[in-house]
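#structure-requests
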Amino acid sequence: MSAPSNDLQLLKTLDSYSLVHTRISDTACKKFLNHLWYIGEELVGLSFFADDEDVSIATKRQLAAELMKPAPASTDVSLKRAQLQRKDIQSCQLTDLVTVNTHHFFGYLEVPQNFLNNDPDKWNEDEDYVRSKNFLQNLTVVNDLSERGVALIEQYNSILTKDEDQKQFLLQVVEDHRHRFPDSSKKTLAAELDTGNE
Protein backbone atom coordinates (compact mmCIF):
# COMPACT_ATOMS: atom_id res chain seq x y z
CA MET A 1 0.00 0.00 0.00
CA SER A 2 1.52 3.28 -1.06
CA ALA A 3 0.60 6.02 1.37
CA PRO A 4 -0.11 9.53 0.08
CA SER A 5 2.71 10.67 2.38
CA ASN A 6 5.25 8.92 0.12
CA ASP A 7 3.94 10.81 -2.88
CA LEU A 8 3.99 14.15 -1.06
CA GLN A 9 7.59 13.48 -0.04
CA LEU A 10 8.52 12.63 -3.63
CA LEU A 11 6.87 15.83 -4.84
CA LYS A 12 8.82 17.89 -2.30
CA THR A 13 12.04 16.23 -3.46
CA LEU A 14 11.24 17.04 -7.09
CA ASP A 15 10.54 20.63 -6.09
CA SER A 16 13.86 20.87 -4.21
CA TYR A 17 15.68 19.61 -7.31
CA SER A 18 15.18 23.10 -8.74
CA LEU A 19 18.40 24.01 -6.90
CA VAL A 20 20.20 21.57 -9.20
CA HIS A 21 18.26 21.94 -12.46
CA THR A 22 15.27 24.28 -12.60
CA ARG A 23 13.85 23.13 -15.92
CA ILE A 24 13.82 19.43 -15.00
CA SER A 25 12.30 20.22 -11.61
CA ASP A 26 9.59 22.40 -13.18
CA THR A 27 8.66 19.79 -15.77
CA ALA A 28 8.62 16.91 -13.28
CA CYS A 29 6.55 18.87 -10.72
CA LYS A 30 4.07 20.02 -13.34
CA LYS A 31 3.56 16.44 -14.53
CA PHE A 32 3.30 15.08 -11.00
CA LEU A 33 0.82 17.77 -9.93
CA ASN A 34 -1.47 16.69 -12.79
CA HIS A 35 -1.57 13.16 -11.38
CA LEU A 36 -2.70 13.83 -7.83
CA TRP A 37 -6.27 12.78 -8.59
CA TYR A 38 -6.01 9.84 -6.21
CA ILE A 39 -4.70 11.88 -3.28
CA GLY A 40 -7.83 13.29 -1.81
CA GLU A 41 -9.64 13.85 1.41
CA GLU A 42 -11.09 10.34 1.39
CA LEU A 43 -8.07 8.29 0.30
CA VAL A 44 -5.83 10.08 2.79
CA GLY A 45 -7.48 7.60 5.16
CA LEU A 46 -4.94 5.03 3.93
CA SER A 47 -2.29 6.99 5.82
CA PHE A 48 -3.82 5.95 9.13
CA PHE A 49 -2.83 2.38 8.27
CA ALA A 50 0.62 3.05 6.83
CA ASP A 51 3.66 1.56 8.53
CA ASP A 52 5.28 3.79 11.15
CA GLU A 53 8.37 4.31 8.99
CA ASP A 54 6.16 5.77 6.24
CA VAL A 55 3.88 7.86 8.46
CA SER A 56 5.26 8.63 11.90
CA ILE A 57 3.33 8.22 15.13
CA ALA A 58 3.42 12.02 15.55
CA THR A 59 1.87 12.52 12.11
CA LYS A 60 -0.78 9.89 12.87
CA ARG A 61 -1.64 11.83 16.04
CA GLN A 62 -2.12 14.97 13.94
CA LEU A 63 -4.19 13.04 11.37
CA ALA A 64 -6.45 11.68 14.11
CA ALA A 65 -6.80 15.15 15.67
CA GLU A 66 -7.80 16.64 12.30
CA LEU A 67 -10.28 13.84 11.70
CA MET A 68 -11.91 14.30 15.10
CA LYS A 69 -12.49 18.04 14.61
CA PRO A 70 -16.17 18.94 14.41
CA ALA A 71 -17.62 19.52 10.95
CA PRO A 72 -17.72 23.17 9.89
CA ALA A 73 -21.11 24.87 9.92
CA SER A 74 -20.70 25.67 6.22
CA THR A 75 -22.50 23.37 3.81
CA ASP A 76 -19.91 23.88 1.08
CA VAL A 77 -18.75 20.62 -0.47
CA SER A 78 -14.99 20.50 -0.45
CA LEU A 79 -12.95 19.20 -3.35
CA LYS A 80 -12.48 15.47 -3.62
CA ARG A 81 -8.86 15.65 -4.72
CA ALA A 82 -5.74 17.53 -3.83
CA GLN A 83 -5.39 20.83 -5.64
CA LEU A 84 -1.80 21.87 -5.03
CA GLN A 85 -0.06 24.80 -6.58
CA ARG A 86 3.67 24.68 -7.20
CA LYS A 87 4.25 27.43 -4.64
CA ASP A 88 2.51 25.34 -1.93
CA ILE A 89 4.45 22.09 -2.38
CA GLN A 90 6.96 22.60 0.41
CA SER A 91 4.38 23.79 2.95
CA CYS A 92 1.79 21.07 2.25
CA GLN A 93 1.41 18.49 4.98
CA LEU A 94 -0.50 15.23 4.98
CA THR A 95 -2.78 16.62 7.65
CA ASP A 96 -3.85 19.40 5.25
CA LEU A 97 -5.71 16.76 3.22
CA VAL A 98 -7.82 15.44 6.12
CA THR A 99 -11.38 16.79 6.21
CA VAL A 100 -14.72 15.70 7.55
CA ASN A 101 -15.11 13.73 4.30
CA THR A 102 -12.20 11.49 5.29
CA HIS A 103 -14.74 9.64 7.46
CA HIS A 104 -16.29 8.36 4.21
CA PHE A 105 -13.17 6.25 3.63
CA PHE A 106 -13.85 4.28 6.81
CA GLY A 107 -17.54 3.94 5.97
CA TYR A 108 -17.06 2.78 2.38
CA LEU A 109 -14.66 0.02 3.41
CA GLU A 110 -16.52 -0.76 6.64
CA VAL A 111 -13.40 -0.09 8.70
CA PRO A 112 -14.13 0.29 12.43
CA GLN A 113 -13.02 3.65 13.86
CA ASN A 114 -12.71 2.61 17.52
CA PHE A 115 -8.91 2.72 17.30
CA LEU A 116 -9.09 6.51 16.93
CA ASN A 117 -9.98 6.73 20.63
CA ASN A 118 -6.50 5.44 21.49
CA ASP A 119 -3.10 7.00 21.01
CA PRO A 120 -1.46 5.93 17.70
CA ASP A 121 1.35 4.13 19.52
CA LYS A 122 -1.35 1.70 20.79
CA TRP A 123 -3.13 1.20 17.45
CA ASN A 124 -1.14 -1.93 16.59
CA GLU A 125 -2.51 -3.53 19.77
CA ASP A 126 -6.10 -3.00 18.62
CA GLU A 127 -7.49 -6.15 16.98
CA ASP A 128 -9.86 -4.26 14.64
CA TYR A 129 -7.05 -1.92 13.56
CA VAL A 130 -4.66 -4.80 12.80
CA ARG A 131 -7.36 -6.66 10.84
CA SER A 132 -8.23 -3.51 8.88
CA LYS A 133 -4.56 -2.78 8.20
CA ASN A 134 -4.02 -6.30 6.82
CA PHE A 135 -7.12 -5.95 4.66
CA LEU A 136 -6.06 -2.54 3.29
CA GLN A 137 -2.48 -3.61 2.61
CA ASN A 138 -3.81 -6.43 0.44
CA LEU A 139 -6.19 -4.30 -1.61
CA THR A 140 -5.66 -4.50 -5.35
CA VAL A 141 -5.97 -1.42 -7.52
CA VAL A 142 -8.70 -2.51 -9.91
CA ASN A 143 -8.91 0.38 -12.33
CA ASP A 144 -5.59 -0.25 -14.09
CA LEU A 145 -6.15 -4.00 -14.25
CA SER A 146 -9.66 -3.54 -15.63
CA GLU A 147 -8.54 -1.08 -18.29
CA ARG A 148 -5.75 -3.41 -19.38
CA GLY A 149 -8.15 -6.35 -19.49
CA VAL A 150 -10.66 -4.45 -21.61
CA ALA A 151 -7.95 -3.24 -23.99
CA LEU A 152 -6.55 -6.77 -24.28
CA ILE A 153 -9.90 -8.37 -25.09
CA GLU A 154 -10.74 -5.64 -27.61
CA GLN A 155 -7.41 -6.12 -29.35
CA TYR A 156 -7.73 -9.91 -29.28
CA ASN A 157 -11.32 -9.72 -30.48
CA SER A 158 -10.44 -7.59 -33.49
CA ILE A 159 -7.62 -9.93 -34.52
CA LEU A 160 -9.78 -13.06 -34.60
CA THR A 161 -12.73 -11.84 -36.64
CA LYS A 162 -14.53 -8.73 -37.80
CA ASP A 163 -17.91 -10.47 -38.02
CA GLU A 164 -20.07 -9.52 -34.98
CA ASP A 165 -21.93 -12.87 -34.96
CA GLN A 166 -18.65 -14.75 -34.85
CA LYS A 167 -17.43 -12.55 -31.98
CA GLN A 168 -20.58 -13.33 -29.98
CA PHE A 169 -20.22 -17.05 -30.70
CA LEU A 170 -16.56 -16.94 -29.62
CA LEU A 171 -17.50 -15.26 -26.32
CA GLN A 172 -20.12 -17.94 -25.69
CA VAL A 173 -17.56 -20.69 -26.32
CA VAL A 174 -15.12 -19.04 -23.90
CA GLU A 175 -17.86 -18.68 -21.26
CA ASP A 176 -18.82 -22.35 -21.64
CA HIS A 177 -15.18 -23.40 -21.37
CA ARG A 178 -14.73 -21.36 -18.17
CA HIS A 179 -17.85 -22.97 -16.73
CA ARG A 180 -16.64 -26.47 -17.57
CA PHE A 181 -13.02 -25.86 -16.52
CA PRO A 182 -13.05 -23.33 -13.63
CA ASP A 183 -9.37 -23.95 -12.97
CA SER A 184 -6.53 -25.73 -14.72
CA SER A 185 -5.86 -28.44 -12.14
CA LYS A 186 -5.40 -32.01 -13.35
CA LYS A 187 -8.30 -33.14 -11.19
CA THR A 188 -10.74 -30.70 -12.83
CA LEU A 189 -9.55 -31.54 -16.34
CA ALA A 190 -9.69 -35.29 -15.72
CA ALA A 191 -13.17 -35.10 -14.14
CA GLU A 192 -14.55 -33.12 -17.10
CA LEU A 193 -12.92 -35.40 -19.65
CA ASP A 194 -14.24 -38.52 -17.85
CA THR A 195 -17.76 -37.02 -17.85
CA GLY A 196 -17.48 -36.28 -21.56
CA ASN A 197 -16.44 -39.88 -22.37
CA GLU A 198 -19.43 -41.46 -20.63
